[in-house]
Amino acid sequence: MRILVTGGAGFIGSHLVSRLIAEGHTVTVLDDxxxxxxxxxxxxxxxxxxxxxSVLSTADLSRAFEEIDYVFHLAAAVGVFNIVKNPxxxxxxxxxxxxxxxxLAASKKIPVFVTSSSEVYGKNVSDSLKESDDRILGSPxxxxxxxxxxxxxxxxxxxxxxxxxxxxxxxxxxxxxxxxRQLGAYGMxxxxxxxxxxxxxxxxxYGDGNQxxxxxxxxxxxxxxxxxxxxxxxxxxVVNIGxxxxxxxxxxxxxxxxxxxxxxxxxxxPYDEAYGDGFEDMERRVPDIKxxxxxxxxxxxxxxxxxxxxxxxxMKQPG
Length: 319
Ligand code: NAD
Description:
By secondary structure, the protein is of the alpha/beta class. It has a domain at about 1-180 and about 220-240 and about 285-300: NAD(P)-binding Rossmann-like Domain (Rossmann fold), CATH 3.40.50. Helices cover about 40% and strands about 15% of the residues. It has helices at about 10-20, 60-65, 80-85, 85-110, 145-165, 190-200, 220-230, 250-260, 270-275, 290-295, 305-315, and strands spanning about 1-5, 25-30, 50, 70-75, 110-115, 170-175, 175-180, 205, 210-215, 215, 240, 245-250, 265-270. A seven-stranded parallel beta sheet has the order 3-2-1-4-5-6-11, sandwiched between helices. Helix 1 links the parallel strand 1 and strand 2. Helix 1 (about 10-20) crosses helix 7, helix 4 (about 85-110) runs parallel beside helix 5 (about 145-165) and helix 6 packs parallel to helix 8. The longest helix has 22 residues, at about 85-110. The protein is globular and about 55 Å long. The mean pLDDT is about 95. The structure holds nicotinamide-adenine-dinucleotide (NAD).
């Protein structure tokens, strides 16, 4: 197929591009390189059409949609630091950008795969978050929640295009995804901890570290994306993609220190100091992954040790 990947120079997008090329597809990438890196695509450079442009520009999108049979829409403003620092740009990218993609896809009848986030569940701390579960959010003017709002609107938009315009849409909610090529600069906890551990520098934990998280290896996530993208049963659905193994941030720090043989200490910084006044975080977020298992038989295969090892290996490489 001829496939467009928006945000294809990013962390997850670039892994998806590699997989699509390996499976024989022709790939166009549209990315403004705001958080993505052209070097993420260096091994694929001669095999893809790369357009440096924005999903906010209808002219860039029209070029990107030329001779396309399928769209994966990953372009977004991501990362808590990024969202809190640039709330307006993030909201517009995540809402208007998605609307632009859906609108053009609907006019050309091209299926769209929309990447949403576990952030839509907000502060719901249930043992296992099902796709139909309620969202629990803080105030709209607590900037952290604007990412959740935007992704939820993306889902509603995609669903409305499916229902009213018969557009073939699939929506996934990624839970924390980690692996090589992920930048720690945007507040992503695992690469940030691994880098500090490798440098024997203090590992900074925000809050008391008792909050828990679940992490999935990006290669598992790409397996899930590929399985769902071409499954008839996933059309019009919202599907969680994540690993349900839960670990506290304190235990994560300890595990990374021990597995990298680091001499780092753990230091604690209050949320307010890290993110600004009134910052709210969730205590835990655990995915229910029954639906994806029923639809395509997917389960995560790689454990946290392999995620830490793969990230550490990449960070030790020169350049
Ligand atoms: P990323 O920042 O590495 O990728 C996003 C890409 O979009 C970047 O390459 C960036 O340059 C590009 N981009 C941003 N604004 C753009 C614009 N206006 N036009 C074109 N390109 C633009 O982040 P990622 O982790 O790879 O995220 C990919 C998708 O997955 C995003 O939609 C994100 O919301 C979603 N997601 C990721 C996670 C995770 O754990 N990594 C969790 C939940 C959801």
